[in-house]
Amino acid sequence: MANLQLKDIRKSFGAVEVIKGVSLEIESGEFMVFVGPSGCGKSTLLRLVAGLEDITSGELKFDGQVVNALTPSKRGIAMVFQSYALYPHMTVYENMAFGMTLEKGHSKEEIRQRVERAADMLQIREYLGRLPKQLSGGQRQRVAIGRAITRDPRVFLFDEPLSNLDAALRVATRIEIAKLHESMHNTTMIYVTHDQVEAMTLADRICVLRDGLVEQVGTPMELYERPDSMFVAGFIGSPKMNFISGKLAENFNAPTVGVRGEHLVVKPSDGVWSGSVIHSENLGSDSYIYVDIGTDEPVVVREDGGKKHQSGEQVQIAPMDAALVHRFDNAGKPIR
Amino acid sequence: MDATIDIWKVTKTTLFYLLVTAIVVIAIFPFYYAILTSFKSGTDLFRINYWPTSFSLANYQQVFTQGAFPRNLLNSVFVASVTVILALFLAVTASFALSRVRFRGRGILLMTILAVSMFPQIAVLAGLFEVIRFLGIYNTPWALIFSYTIFTLPFTVWVLTTFMRDLPVEIEEAAIVDGASPWVIITRVFMPLMWPALVTTGLLAFIAAWNEFLFALTFTVSNQTRTVPVAIALLSGGSQYEIPWGIIMAASVVVTVPLVVLVLIFQRKIVSGLTAGGVKG
Amino acid sequence: MRQRAVAARWFLLPMMIALAVVAGWPLARSIYFSFTDVTLNDLYGAEWVGFANYLQIRTLESGRVIYRGVLADPAWWNAVWNTVRFAFWSVLWETILGMIVALVLNAEFRGRGIVRAAILIPWAIPTIVSARMWSWMLNDQFGILNDLGMRLGLLSAPVAWTASPDTAMLAVLVVDIWKTTPFMALLILAGLQMIPRDIYEAARIDGVHPIKQFWAITLPLVRPALMVAIIFRVLDALRIFDLIYVLTPNSAATKTMSVLAQENLFQFNNFAEGSAQSTLLFLLIALFTIVYIWLGRVNFDAGDR
After folding, report:
1. What global pTM score does this model have?
2. What local confidence, expressed as pLDDT, does residue C304 receive?
3. Which residues cross the membrane (chain B) (predicted)?
């Protein structure tokens, strides 16, 4: 358990600056998610926290102590990698125990207890004698998490741990990680993903990164309800927020407005915008209607499942509530 | 119509298998003939046979009882083994640094190592002779172990570097997070993953050391310190007509059979090792 | 990560010291010796003589000009010619035959494993052993090859293959080609196996004749691997020593640069001249090494850290 302070952290590879001054505080026991499109620097930032890359400038503190020059193990971190990164020649038990055997002063008995406790938490006790190649992808990722738990870290790092799993396992493991956080509520966790669903479902707070800079930090609902920029507004939430600009936005007194599909309704008349239905998708629980109102991309409207619209049908749409319309200036900043 | 196609096909297959047979026969006939000769003795030796006609172990008996051949064999085993162990030991750590750590001048260093492996041995012969005299190891196995490093070390470094480069980065990072020092990463994480590569490179280096001739000829002068290639090269009688062919062939078979057996056992690995050293770069 | 760079330096140090002691220093000393009047018995009393070992031009009082040194020595130029001749013909035939063997091994047929195992045998046999095996087979009186040649009517009388100046080089070439073609074949085979099979399938669908396929698809695609293998072999052929030393001892028709230099250094007590000769060979091979690295376009920093 540790609180982290990042002070104007920068990282360059040669002449290219990848992290351009990130300042951030992470509370002890918090689950922080770094999210952003690929190339935004989120993985690099995680590796800087881990100590796998050197910080070019700035200060990284764990509990007030500067750790810039410390090795990953001295920082007391543990990390779960995208490709699991298990040692292929060691059994599950040896994989989980390896870190502790390298630290001095742990008796065999102590190591065994710690490994078994972690194995029980993840229900992998029966696999302890197996080699990684004898396990499925989901099991391997559980072992990788177990290896991290065994080390009893101050900070627990995840680098896109779900992206190598198939869709069903991804949801199951996501829930597993959420439960893990509940049971280890003292341990600070940082989780990197490009998937906003993972970010929304797991995070206490989300840090949205873009081009090596922090775009916004906040709880999932803060980001959803009060995005600090068009970028965050577009990145958080599914389907993506609709942006309407120019003449079509004049009613709202802003160059651009954004409305989420779930905040729009189809009306027979008296709508704010009108257009023709291009396509509708029925997912069972929801249906998405794509309406061409004259914007570059069609506007998406979420309706309850089962509602049907014919392509070419003329409809009118409107926000459910004026308060749910986000107004942005020309720089993409919100007008509040 | 179908019949003509069949005839063409049969001819093609026949020609192909004739070619295959020719390749196999040419490849193994000299060795076969050496074995055949090694079992002949006396005047049988000078009768030309294509198939085994007589069987005598006299040549082998002589090889192992007369002269210093058993001693030469021991020398070869000792020199080649120690050379390989030394080269692997130096190469494993060096290739970790060369394949895994970014530092300035790495490209130049790799280039230099590659260049050394292309050295003509004759170019360093005079200088090596001086160093070996200076170290006082002239005419001992250590002179050969010392000088063989010039070709075994660059080769092992090169092959192990290409191999280590392909090991996943994340496994190493997981080890770093687990608190492993570079030395622990090499010995406890990479070495177990690399042992097939170590066996292959070790074997190739062993063969190279086992077969070496120029240094062995130059840096050893007595029967007791020579290795088998030199011993076999210098086996001769009083004149051209007294060359003990039977004994030479027996000695040749003795030094070759272990190599051939090893090569056949490890053939897949050897092929990949050779091509890693040669083509991949 | 800084500790890694420090550790890397320590890891490299033993290897670099070893290479400096066994390669760098001896090479420098050999080159230095070539500019002195050093002898085998007195390595430390050497005096600097400049280029005298290479070429020395003196005008006698009578007005006659005398050229001395390695570059004015016909035996040296004979060795250079032998070396180049040997390298050219051996590599040419090894390439052609290696390509044939590689194409055979690249085809799928029953018994492929046996062929591959069989061609590894010449490669595994020590050069000295193969030299002696072949000199027995090439023996003028009791050699099986003369016998075979006469039975098949190819030869009218036995030939002293290794002793006769006319055939000595041929004998050396045959043995070297026999021994080294497998290596070439394996390198070419590795190149062939990197060519995706679907290219051939596409060519078959387009109705390209197999021979055309070889020239239009196989050869261009295997060329990088082939070029590297060829240069590799040329470098090896240029330094040939053991095969010639054992198969055709003391034959002027086959004496190469390495053999001549070794004899001068350690048998004829011409240490300084031998050093000059080995330095010249080194320069020749250095030139080819540069070509190799340039042609190989060795990419040292691809895909690693």
Report:
1. 0.84
2. 33
3. 15-35, 73-96, 108-129, 141-164, 185-210, 243-266
